[in-house]
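Writing this down once: the sequence line spells out the residues, with the fold written below as integer tokens. This is how one looks:
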Amino acid sequence: MAESISDTFAQPDNPPDPGAAALVTREAVLGAFLRAHRERLAPDDVGLPPGRRRRTPGLRREEVAQLAGLSATWVTWLEQGRPVALSARALASLATALRLSRAERAYLFELAGRRDAQPAGSEAVPSAVMASVHAINGPAYLLDRQWNALAWNEAAARLFVGWLDADSPERNLLRAMFLSAPLQALVDDWPHRAGRLVAEFRAHSIRHADDAPMRALIEGLMAESPAFGAAWLSQDVEDREGGHRGFHHPALGALQFAQLTLWPAAAPGLMLVMLLPA
């Protein structure tokens, strides 16, 4: 008698491994990640004495808990994949205790569903990222989390009167866009572009909305610019997709570019913006 389809699926020759299925949960992945990085560390790596003979590689859970200032029970439960909710501060302590790299720390916070408590601007911008701005043939600039210009090339200085030129005291893109008359005159269709810029900033800044510099920037603009206040209160959110950019330069006349924005992996939170020939 021919075997039915239902019989084939009811009694598989190679049933799935229940342990492998369990690893698909976020908690299980987090636990495996923490355990692997604990086992990679030796006591000497973190300034602890070797102690008695170790039957397993790496640090003990109690030692990680001691270094992180956490309960050993919590560390055990985390590695076991139990649903333990840790604060951002506790996760930061774990990242420090396990000597995680920047990428590993970001991965840890993503797994835990938390925002990193690391202060904005706490890391230096890699020199290669800074140098890339000046290697680009065309206007280019680098923005930090609050959209302050950290670096720009000569082409950008010539183009952006009222912001990146030598006579402008304002280096924050949002503040210049709403408070600098020369920049407003430069940008084609300023009302539309200014409103879109605020919508893009809202999307970009949400991960750092609680940072003191971010709050100060928004509060200051709300007080100084009714146009910014109206745009911010509209709650519009847009991706920074680039596209066509037009300018009315006082010396160079009408200019057209295609904007491209990149997020350097070596400098999380920063944006490299280029204006290419349209």
Notes: The two ends are 71 Å apart (CA to CA). The mean pLDDT is 83.
